[in-house]
Amino acid sequence: MNFPVENLDESASAEELLVLFHMFSGLSLTALTEAQYDLKVKLGKAMTALSRRLKSKARLEECRQLDSEIVTLYKSMWDDSHNEDLALALDHLGRSWHLIRDYIRAKVAAEESVQLWRQLAEENPERYEMDLVTSLRNFGFYSYQLGDLSGAMDAYQEVVNFLRNLAAREPGRYKDDLESTMQTVLQLGYVS
């Protein structure tokens, strides 16, 4: 490897990151030392940064592949301390599938992400409600693209409910978002 593992960050090349990923992917959590586990966390963060760079350069298939690997990495670390990382990774994966117009897989990733954000928002609403709203909105969009108007309406209606509560507390911050989402719900209502 051409870079010091302990200094792993987003400057690592895709090849270096994937070599590291495959080196760690076969290990169970119980087999990892604390240092290796910390490296796996750093690896996930560096891969996420690389995914964003790939997306910004329209290297969509590479981005989708990397996002899939990131989800695999975080699922291998499954414990409550990484639910936020996994939920974010699933959000990114859903958007990657969306960009290559695979709405079935995008919806599956979004559905799993919604479940995680919902758990996190129950524990800490102020920190995670907007993440849940974003995932619900994505799920609604993917549902709509697949012709599931009922699923789309349910997701958007839940977004509206969250935004109404947030706008009641901070009208200036959430009013425009609420109005835009309500327009989407009205449009879907007329379609169905």
Notes on the structure:
With 192 residues, the chain is an all-alpha fold. It folds into 2 domains: 1-78; 104-192, Methane Monooxygenase Hydroxylase, Chain G, domain 1, CATH 1.20.58. Helix content is 80%, strand content 0%. It is built from 8 helices and no strands. Helix 1 packs antiparallel against helix 2, helix 2 (34-56) runs antiparallel to helix 3 (60-76) and helix 5 (103-123) runs antiparallel to helix 6. It starts with 13 loop residues before the first helix and ends with a helix.
SSE inventory with pairings:
Blueprint: H1 14-25, H2 34-56, H3 60-76, H4 83-99, H5 103-123, H6 125-145, H7 149-169, H8 171-191
Helix pairs in contact: 1-2, 2-3, 3-4, 4-5, 5-6, 6-7, 7-8
In short:
The protein has helices spanning 14-25, 34-56, 60-76, 83-99, 103-123, 125-145, 149-169, 171-191.
> Total strand count, please?
0
Count of separate structural domains: 2
CATH fold group of the largest domain? Methane Monooxygenase Hydroxylase, Chain G, domain 1
Please identify, by name, the CATH architecture of the largest domain: Up-down Bundle
Largest sheet: none
CATH class of the largest domain: Mainly Alpha
User: What is the N-to-C order of secondary-structure elements (H for helix, E for strand)?
Assistant: HHHHHHHH
Residue ranges: pLDDT <50 for 5 or more in a row?
Answer: 1-6
Name the structural class: mainly alpha
Distance between the termini: 56 Å
Regarding quaternary structure, how should these chains be classified? single chain
Helix share, percent: over 70%
